[in-house]
Specification:
The complex is a heterotrimer of chains A (307), B (533) and C (308). Chain A has 11 helices and no strands. Chain A is mainly alpha-helical and 307 residues long. The longest helix of chain A is centred in the C-terminal third of the chain and has 39 residues. Chain A is globular and about 85 Å long. Classes of the chains: A mainly alpha (307), B alpha+beta (533), C mainly alpha (308).
Chain lengths: 307, 533, 308
């Protein structure tokens, strides 16, 4: 297991390097730069700006300088569009926000999804099952860019229960709508996966044996059925995590949470090279880390797998 | 009145009293003096040298104060400069600064202005608005920005702690009007030299404005608190000002309706409904920007657009009234001139297509196209480029439909902002959506755009036009020159002018003091107050 | 919203196993599929939506781009769905016929979904089959590459691509398709590994058939079940991705539209008394996704029955 983790981490480094070089080149090939605007800058002003940010060096040198700064100094450079801040500061500001509502959404999606799926499987073909399936299918296809403004309309304007946006680490009322909007569709998918895998496990031989031995039903489910039924859910968690980060763009736009999702999209559209690179590296590293955690978890639950 | 400063004044001393807002009779101030306004996006910079956008400028006007400020009508009134004198040749201005302090208690000196302006010009600062000093025609600005001269050669000197002298390269009729712009704000030399680039961060920033920065959560909200050190603090009523970012205009309106915001822009098309429902809150006032479809007349541009008849036909047949009344629906004005109709001292030329009925215009357009050899059987094919935005999209679609019956087939090309501006600057377009906003309340802010050496993305060029603008700099009466320049634009049609902007907002009726006659929509938080409901 | 990989694995295992026992898994599958009510409902929905996309345009009274000047400017009052003025689904904010636009948006969305899924499946199948069949060092390198690609945040790359190359239909197809071939290639590789030592493959190899032909002629046909199910389940994911891209404003060019673009326009104005602008496109979007899920699940269950 230890060797497996080490090997995966060793692959992570070239992966990140590849990602950096690829994004860097792609970004620079895109038409327009961070300083093109409604008014063309006089050549002298533009030259000053480009010199300041090292944009007139050859591409390979820019990439090299960038890598050195990132690896040696852990410095992602200054933002082009937010000149008051460095990329490190922007990420330090935005990432904890994304992590907070993303983490809560993740937990909510897993807990509620698994619960819904298990309940539906136990009372298979009852009204509970149908209700659970109905909810989860409906929730799965409603785009969150419809759900988010709808939530603001209902909870802020009509009922006046929750603030319509903004962020505060000390006030959970700001977290509720982002978490609902982000977690619902994943909760639904997890519920569907849990339900079908639970049904499969409940029909399997070793559960029949356990029941035949006269074990009480709740013990059968908790002791014997739940763990194997979780396997497909766990392999689904890696992709969920990644698409949650992507989906956080929508949350940031509608709820003004100030997270990194919007920062990424903005930086790509504004050609804020440094911010875009910083967020891409962060998300890439997180993806690698999370996939690794999921694999380890998988191996831990499923004794058949040996790395 | 601009000419007064430039040519006739031997000594123009300003001795007007400072303009301060007072509650009208019968108004009771609310307990809670807080104003919350909407920001579409995060504020990019609070450094006066690096700010480039409107939202940043709104914030900076709370934190800093320049030599001049604007009153509710947009007229220049004394800010940091108590009085000033202009030399006879219009090349030297001397400002007498008032006694005022930075928010850390240090006095504001003339040297702080000198330092700030030199910093803007210095290449190492990499200020995107360094060109503003060139617009002001300050001596040596161009050479310093190009790195050919040292920053201390800039034509601005502190004669003593409270006297500032500015030297210009050429008489500049609008010079005083440039002095309320954020790029010209003073900065506290001692603080900036001590902290470097970090001086603008929350906790560090020191200003001379009516407010100090209480907190700034990027992309979420920015909060200002009244500054007790401000020279006119006793007349400042509003205690707290909050700018709240909401990236989606429709959600912002929802949050206004929920009482979370005091001011929000009304999305395109919603003004009629809202003004019926909330007549006191829905407000539309002119805003000094003009919207146009620019033709690419450079070598890279399509041949067909070089035919003036085709351009005229397109200008004639675009039904601006429908665009304004039925698409935008927010009190905008149809545009038949590049200069905004409400610009000080500007009057649009008489006659022309503005006064023709739509049927006559369509008939004339068909005729012109036929002369040029085009028609529904042999359509003109042009690509219209616009950047991603709801109202640009709606307008482009409408324009496409207006032109189609005449035999002008428009292909819509939606690109994102960075690509749009890049292509404009490199003449990689056929026809493109463009808008220009006034930097100051005078016609040259618009007309300069079409000079041969102006921004002029379509590379139109006309000798008479260029000469008119040069003459205007020293002319006694500029109005006829500007009017003639617009006539040339109307004859040559280097662009189709579409509409003049209006600011269309929902404003909480309890908030008083927001200017409604200021074309640049410059507002100062210090002028606001909230009345009890 | 991701495909349940463990089920796909189980399905793939089943196909390999079936080969051994010498009976085709297709034999009973059709019967099972037609007995599945949800799957039949889904199939019916898909057929109806496809008919709507193909023939809906003939019923439209307006084109998808002309402006109705009698409605323009007072859409909330005059633009509601009506049989009289021919706007069956009402109009959009500019006074364009929403019915015609939904028909046209349906075409684009279905096309993006199907073409995107096809690209993903084709690339994934060929890649996985090649890696599995060739084996050895090539296999190692190819699958390591997949591992590396797995940790790239794809949506980010897609946004970059669209920003860089400008929005075009082909870029959208390609970008969306290239997002999801990785899982497919893993499953196909596994299945190819178990197939490749079968007698019929060895026989082909012995008679001197080229590797490429063996992959195309013998390996790929045996993967058909997995491919079919995977493709059906990928289509709704592609449609969802496209809607997200449209929401970001990077979708197809006006006057063309898609469900995502229509929904995001409609969602913006849902509080302004023009709810039909959201309701109609959302309705088609939702039922179509249901349809694909039901059919995909039904196909899988039919091909891989649990009670074997």
């Amino acid at each position: 297991m230890f060797a497996f983790i080490l090997r995966r981490l060793a692959v992570a480094i070239p992966t990140l390097l590849l990602l950096i070089v690829f994004s860097f080149v792609l970004m620079q090939m895109a038409p327009g730069g961070p300083f093109t605007g409604e008014r063309a800058l006089p050549p002298a002003v533009l030259a000053n700006l480009e010199a300041q940010y090292g944009l007139n060096d050859p591409l390979w040198l820019q990439i090299w300088n960038y890598l050195v700064n990132v690896v040696v100094h852990f410095d992602f450079g200054p933002s082009f569009v937010y000149p008051d801040r460095t990329v490190n500061q922007l990420i330090a500001n935005g990432f904890p926000v994304t992590l907070t509502y993303g983490g809560l959404s993740f937990i909510a999606a897993v807990v509620m999804g698994v619960a819904l799926g298990v309940v539906a499987a136990i009372w298979h073909n009852s009204w509970i099952d149908y209700l659970a399936v109905g909810i989860s299918i409906g929730a799965q296809v409603l785009p969150n860019f419809v759900m988010a403004p709808l939530l603001v309309l209902v909870f802020t304007l009509w009922y006046g229960l929750l603030p319509g946006g903004g962020w505060s680490f000390s006030n959970p009322s700001f977290w509720i709508m982002p978490v609902i909007a982000l977690s619902t569709s994943y909760m639904a998918s997890i519920a569907r996966i849990t339900r079908s895998s639970m049904l499969e496990v409940l029909g399997s031989n070793h559960i029949r044996t356990a029941r035949a031995k006269g074990m009480p039903e709740h013990r059968v489910i908790i002791r014997h059925a739940l763990k194997p039924a979780m396997l497909p859910v766990i392999s689904y968690l890696g992709p969920v995590f990644v698409s949650m980060i992507t989906g956080s763009v929508v949350i940031d736009i509608y709820f003004s949470t100030g997270g990194i999702g919007k920062a990424f999209v903005d930086s790509a559209l504004n050609r804020d090279y440094a911010v875009m690179m910083g967020v891409t590296i962060l998300v890439g590293a997180l993806t690698i880390l999370f996939n690794l955690i999921v694999d380890v978890l998988y191996a831990w639950i499923d004794p058949k797998i040996r790395y | 009145m601009t000419k007064l400063f430039a040519t006739t004044a031997l000594l123009t001393a300003m001795a007007m009293p400072a303009w301060a807002v007072q509650p009208a009779e019968g108004e009771t101030l609310a307990e809670n003096q807080t104003y919350t306004y909407w920001l579409l996006d995060a504020i990019k910079s609070l450094d006066p040298a690096k700010n480039t956008d409107v939202e940043g400028s709104d914030a900076l006007r709370s934190l800093f104060e320049g030599l001049m400020i604007q009153d509710a009508q947009g007229e220049m009134i004394p800010g940091m400069a108590e009085t000033f004198e202009a030399s006879e040749d219009g090349l030297t201005y001397t400002f007498n600064l008032r006694e005022a302090n930075w928010s850390n208690g240090d006095p504001v000196t003339a040297d702080d202005f000198v330092y700030a302006w030199q910093r803007v010009a210095t290449p190492e600062t990499a200020s995107e608005y360094a060109w503003y000093l060139e617009l002001m025609n300050i001596e040596n600005a161009t050479q310093i920005i190009a790195g050919e001269m040292e920053p201390d050669q800039l034509g601005v000197t502190a004669l003593d702690d409270r006297t500032l002298q500015v030297r210009l390269t050429t008489p500049t009729p609008y010079f005083i009007k440039t002095l309320s712009h954020t790029t010209t704000y003073p900065i506290p030399r001692a603080v900036v030299e001590e902290l470097g680039d970090a001086w603008v961060q929350p906790g560090n920033i020191v200003g001379n404005g009516a407010y100090t920065l209480a907190s700034h959560n990027l992309g979420v909200e920015i909060v200002f608190q009244k500054n007790p050190e401000y020279w006119d603090a006793e007349n400042v009523l509003m205690e707290t000002v909050r700018g709240v970012t909401v990236n989606d205009n429709n959600v912002a309106l929802t949050r206004y309706q929920a009482g979370e915001l005091d001011r929000v822009q009304i999305p395109a098309g919603q003004f009629p409904r809202l003004s019926e429902e909330f007549p006191e809150a829905a407000v539309s006032v002119p805003n000094g920007c003009s919207y146009a479809y620019i033709f690419n007349l450079s070598e890279k541009g399509p041949e067909v657009l070089k035919d003036a008849r085709v351009r005229e036909a397109m200008a004639l047949s675009l039904n601006r009234e429908v665009i304004v009344d039925q698409v935008l629906q927010g009190g905008q004005e149809p545009a038949y001139s590049w200069t905004h109709w409400a610009i000080d001292g500007f009057s649009a030329p008489e006659g022309g297509m503005k006064d023709m009925p739509m049927e006559a215009r369509m008939a004339r357009a068909t005729e012109l196209l036929a002369e040029a050899g085009y028609g529904p059987d042999n359509p003109v094919r042009i690509q219209l480029q616009y950047n991603t935005d709801d109202s640009h999209r709606l307008l482009a679609i409408a324009a496409q439909q207006f032109w189609r019956p005449l035999g002008i087939e428009i292909e819509l090309n939606n690109v994102e902002w960075a690509v749009h501006t890049d292509r404009l600057q490199n003449q990689d377009f056929e026809m493109a959506r463009y808008a220009w906003c006034a930097d100051y309340d005078e016609a040259t802010t618009f007309l300069d755009w079409f000079r041969t050496t102006g921004y002029n993305s379509g590379k139109w060029s006309n000798e008479e036009y260029d000469k008119l603008l040069v003459d205007a700099r020293t002319a006694e009466d500029t109005a006829p020159l500007y009017s003639r320049a617009e006539e040339i634009l109307a004859e040559e049609n280097p662009a189709v002018f579409v509409y003049h902007y209006a600011d269309v907002d929902m404003i909480n009726p309890a908030i008083k003091g927001l200017p409604r006659e200021n074309l640049l929509n410059t507002w100062y938080a210090k002028d606001l107050y909230r009345v009890a409901e | 919203m991701v495909i349940d990989q463990s089920k796909m694995q189980s399905l793939s295992d089943r196909f390999v196993e079936a080969e051994v026992k010498g009976r085709s898994p297709w034999a009973d599958a059709r019967k099972r599929f037609f007995r599945n009510k949800a799957a039949m409902l889904g199939l019916m929905i898909l057929v109806l939506v496809s008919l709507f996309a193909i023939f809906g345009g003939y019923v439209a009274q307006w084109s998808n781009e002309e402006l109705d000047f009698s409605v323009m400017g007072q859409v909330a009052q005059m633009g509601q769905p009506s049989l009289e003025n021919g706007h069956f689904f009402g109009t959009d904010n500019l006074g364009r016929d929403l019915y015609a636009r939904v028909v046209q948006g349906t075409r684009i969305s279905l096309m993006v979904g199907v073409v995107g899924a096809a690209i993903a499946v084709i690339v994934g199948t060929l890649y996985g089959a090649t890696a599995g069949y060739v084996g050895g060092r090539t296999d190692q390198i190819m699958m390591r590459t997949v591992d590396i690609l797995m940790s790239i945040p794809y949506m980010f790359v897609l946004i970059l691509l669209l920003v860089m190359f400008g929005r075009s239909m082909s870029m959208l197809f390609l970008g969306i398709g290239l997002i999801s071939w990785l899982d497919m290639s893993r499953i196909v590789r596994g299945q190819t590994l178990s197939l490749k030592n079968r007698e019929f493959i060895e026989a082909a190899r012995a008679t001197g058939v080229s590797s490429f032909r063996i992959i195309i002629r013998h390996i790929v046909p045996n993967l058909l079940g997995v491919v079919a199910v995977y493709a059906t389940l990928l289509v709704p994911l592609m449609i969802l991705t496209e809607s997200f891209i449209s929401f970001l404003g990077l979708g197809v060019q006006e006057p063309l539209t898609s469900w995502g673009a229509l929904i995001s326009e409609g969602a913006g104005t849902m509080n302004y008394g023009t709810l039909w602008q959201l309701a109609f496109p959302l309705f088609f979007f939702v039922i179509t996704l249901f349809g694909f899920f039901f059919v995909g699940d039904g196909l899988r269950d039919a091909l891989d029955p649990k009670e074997r």
